[in-house]
Amino acid sequence: MEFNSGVSMFLPDSIGLNGNDFDEEDHEDIVHEQTNQNEIVELIMAAFEGHEEPSDGEEEEDDEDDESLNTSNSSHLIVNEHELLNTNNNNNNANDHYIQQQQHELLHRNHLYQQPLYSTPAVSTPPPLVPPSASTDFDDHTQYTYPRYQQFDEHNNTEQDIQFSTKSSALVHYQNPNRHTNNNNNNIAPTGVQYFDSLPTIDFIDPMQAQFMYQTSSTSSSDTQNQLNKFRILCNVKERKITELENRLTEYHEKYNSDLRVLKHKIELSERAKYDYEQRYQSITRQCEELIETNNQLQRTIKDAELKIQQLEGNKTQLEKKLDDAESLIDSLHRKVNELQRFESIARTQQDCELILASTREKHEQEIINLNEKLQITQMNLQEKTIEVDELRIQLESACKNNEKAIFERMETISHLNQQLHDCQRQYTDLLTSKSMDTFNQTETKRQLNRMTEDKEKLENICQEFQ
Question: What is the pTM (predicted TM-score) of this model?
Answer without folding.
Answer: 0.23
